Amino acid sequence: MKLNLYRKFSVALLAFVVLGCTGDFEEINTNPNSPLATQPALLLPGIERDMIHAVLGEAWSIGNVVIQHTAKNQFVNEDRYLWGELNTIWNAVYDNMRDINNIVKQAEVSNQPNFRGVALVLRSWMFSLVTDSYGDVPYTQAMNGKEGIFFPEYDPQQKIYEGILNDLKEANTLLAGAININGDVIYGGDVKKWRQLANSLRLRYLMRISDQVDVRAEMQEIVNDPVAYPLFTGNADHAVYSFQANSPDQFPLFTARIGSFNEFRASKALTDKLIALADNRLYIFTRPTPVTEATASTSDDVYVGVPNGLDDVAALEYNGGPEFQSRIGPLFFEQATSPKGIEIAKGVIMTYAELQFILAEAREKEFITTGTAEAYYLNGINASFSFYGLTASPTYLLQSEVAYTGTREEKLEKIGTQKWISLFFQGLEAWFDWRRTGYPKLQPGVDNQNDDRIPVRFIYPLIEQSLNADNRTIAVNRQGPDDINSRVWWDVK
């Protein structure tokens, strides 16, 4: 009898415990320190900082080298086109795209068109980076793991660009009259400037695909109506990330090992061009070498760039050794946290100078009828000099290699060359643009290991072969071999 009573009591107690626990199960098992959602203003600065660091890192390690702004005198594989997988941009874009999509979704729910517009601008820029680096990439189905899509298809680049341009157009509409935002470290929350960036980027990407698509109507629509489609109007509008003097937000190279910094030197291609033009941006970009016996008769500083693509021995011994090879300017290293360094050593999304060179090319090619190509071209040069606290003298602008004279092709080459100079330390964008235009007329690295071809894309991350093999294979079959010489859709040169 006692045993039966004990069993009944035990069952009743168990039922009470179970019912009591399940009544507030979700509340008890919810971690208050692990929120399911957050505010867009808290996500935005991390995205901006991560992406700028990724772009700067890939520019320093490969972009500036392949576009011959810099050259290597040690560990020269990159300079000889012995490229393995380069995953910085891929990882940064897709890692941060989750938060971009969260901002877009939360902005829709909370009716915040300002945050949605800014997120669309960033999403467009980020996807342009990954598609211009690799070609066809996951786009439509990217970041849809929660919807059960674990193996996203690679979209054709043409489709990706349609999405990029549509997003930028929508962002322009959303940001018209929108209120400023918090958490933005690019423009301090000024949505008017984000709107200018949206339209300026739209011109960049229309020009990017202009060898494949007739872009005249869209470009003309934008430049014809600065009220409906505001653009950058000066250097104060350009999209840059300004680093700080103090840790933890200093210019990334400021904390680099001196040996790692010094294995990158001024390239002969850029240095010789700046010397030939008497271009005083040379003194910002590079440093003079010590006086040698060969230069002892002059008191002028000597600048010597290293030819791109030399083998290890030749690169290290060039011009008598590292001591006599120009290093990159101090504002990009030990002086990056000085007041002048903070003004110059920035992470760049897009500048006013670039926009003006785009407009100059568009006008010269008669994609637009507004303004004159020469005026845009000169604006671009002057804006680039001004970015570095310099002034382009009348003598500089009137010399034959700079003055806006000659045939159409000669003028386009001048635009391309000045744009290339202005994109110093923006190696990825400079590389993308060179692939489209062929200007300046760079020569492959001296002892390159790629059959005298400058690379035109990155190979896909090797992990894709195991994690998303079928879709990668479809993209490769559509695009061409997964190597550094297969051109992306818009690159028809």
Automatic annotation (TrEMBL):
InterPro entries: SusD-like_2 (IPR041662), TPR-like_helical_dom_sf (IPR011990). Residues 1-20 form the signal peptide. This is RagB/SusD family nutrient uptake outer membrane protein. Keywords: Signal. SUPFAM superfamilies: TPR-like. Transmembrane segments: none annotated. The lineage of its organism: Bacteria, Pseudomonadati, Bacteroidota, Cytophagia, Cytophagales. The keyword Signal applies.
